[in-house]
Amino acid sequence: MFRLIDFEYHGKTVFLRADLNSPVTDGKIISDARFRAVLPTIIYLLEHGAKLVIGTHQSKPYKGDYITTEQHAEILSGLLGQEVEYVEDIFGKYARERIKALKPGEALMIENLRFAAEEVKYKPIEDCEKTFFVRKLSPLIDYVVNDAFAATHRSQPSLVGFARLKPMIMGFLMEKEVQALTKAYETQEKPRVYVLGGAKVDDSLRVAENVLRNGRAEVILTGGLVGHVFTLAKGFHLGDSNLEFMEKKGLLELVDWAEEILNEFYPYVRTPVDFAVDYRGERVEVDLLSEEKWLFDEHPILDIGSRTVEKYREVLMGAKIIVANGPMGVFEREEFAVGTVGVFRAIGESPAFSIVGGGHSIASIYQHNITGISHVSTGGGAMLSFFAGEKLPVLEAFRESYERFKGLLEG
Hints:
Layout: E1 2-3, E2 13-17, E3 24-25, E4 28-29, H1 33-47, E5 51-55, H2 70-80, E6 84-87, H3 93-101, E7 107-110, H4 125-129, H5 132-137, E8 143-146, H6 157-160, E9 168-170, H7 172-186, E10 192-196, H8 201-213, E11 219-222, H9 224-233, H10 240-248, H11 255-265, E12 269-270, E13 274-279, E14 282-287, H12 295-298, E15 301-304, H13 306-317, E16 321-325, H14 338-349, E17 353-357, H15 359-367, E18 375-376, H16 381-387, H17 393-405, H18 407-410
Parallel strand pairs: 1-9, 2-5, 2-8, 5-7, 6-7, 8-9, 10-11, 10-16, 11-12, 16-17, 17-18
Antiparallel strand pairs: 3-4, 13-14, 13-15
Helix pairs in contact: 1-2, 8-11, 8-16, 9-11, 13-14
């Protein structure tokens, strides 16, 4: 695959596909973490005289955080100490004129890519190539740099559509992400421990099945709703109120699949031995085998318990490789952050090579100043797809682009 340092950029027009999709409260972006993650790539391109066109998506149509990229351009301008012009257009005449007017070392940001209907659908590379977005912009572009790791599991025009028309190059963030994930997935160092939490249960089941079946994990620790599903699959009752909640979320239909995984790999999948419930506004810990488990009937489970944290900690301290995705509970409520913070602290203190990913996980790490994690991934869904052994469309597009244009390097 092409690396950023492979090419000269002076006077060249570069389309940088970033993923600056950020949390928004009351119409304002509240975190610049994803901006800082792509900063090294942007600085490198500008310092090497590129005429830089930056594209990102923000949320999805009809959602509360579906906003223009005006704030994104302002935040980047502040971080760079130079203006990033906001262009209220994607591939129309105005956008094309502003792109043509760029001088070496200047940057602009086009409008939220998902304001274009073509960008909302997932299509194969050949269909993405034929979109108006790609056809209108490709004549103006010399190189495409893709640094949107968090979107590598999607096949959309801005992500894959240029790959066979122009050299598509990995940004520094993309390269770092792919190297870290590949190292964790392909290593033979043992024990390899996967920590699967959060609410993306079907994705997590795919990961568990893939890494266990292909001999890439020794232990899987579960929490969050993933832990609930495996606990039910082991035959424990989690109370009527929790079952109702899981039914509403469509999670009960995944219990049979979890059971199949357990039938094949029972000793390797660990589930919580105690949980924390909200009892009259307080955190109360309930052992799964205790008399108090009647509390599950009327009170929601919002975290794993302290005994589970200790058991998981022992496993994590002895690990050589740790891959973790998703929180252990509703960490947004301080009293129910005990499990998530305890497990992530243990990952940070473990001598293992560790990767933690997922938006909620990252938020928790920064909020509680957890250090020592080898690699914090910017992609949750993309990371899960990678460890589930699935082909990621953007990585496939990088390979196609390299095969098509590698002669440029030899020349």
